[in-house]
Amino acid sequence: LKEFCLHDDLNCTSVRNGILTIYCEITGSRIKIIEQSLSNDLKITFDNQKFSDLTLVVEEQEICVHKVILASRSSVFATMLESDMIEKHSNKVDITDIDYETMKLALMYIYTGNLPASFWPRADKYALDGLKYTCGVFLSKALTVENAFETLVLADLYKDSNLKTNALNFIAKNFADVMTDMEGFKLIMEKHPQLLEEFLCLVGHKTQI
């Protein structure tokens, strides 16, 4: 191949208004693309921290993250990133109201959408509505005689209307067995009297039916 060629040797149709257009045909082996779910891809991104542009400091430990993912998945993080909470030169922000392990798991949810149901209360603080819904569904399926009152209190506290309805219906349906949980009943009676009234009304209504 020639390293250079003369202007006169060029096809006149290739040069217009001083702009050279090169047409070429490239032949190569076909690249096999291995499909992965978005969730798995983002988990890999979180694990290897490649191209991270922000560091969260939690309990003196650092977690490297990506601003665009945090901002797009959580309105609280979006507000944080737009505020003066970030140290401008180092791109670091201190998180003081959550422990390191919980933060790691919360970030795993932000990146992948997967997280144990036990972290449902944390979702309220960081505006992770998807997490609240997922955990609410899980807790509804996991209702038992032993945890019905506690679940009802949590549902009311975090304003999960679906979970609250499911817990109330479970208590009404299994009233005699649920009432063996004296600690749970005491919690409702002493600290959440409005819930006591709600489930007693529901029990009375179902009994009449």
UniProtKB/TrEMBL annotation:
Database matches in InterPro entries: BTB/POZ_dom (IPR000210), SKP1/BTB/POZ_sf (IPR011333)
Higher taxonomy: Eukaryota, Metazoa, Ecdysozoa, Arthropoda, Hexapoda
Record-annotated BTB domain positions: 52-119
PANTHER family: SPECKLE-TYPE POZ PROTEIN (PTHR24413)
Coiled coil ranges: none
Protein name in the entry: BTB domain-containing protein
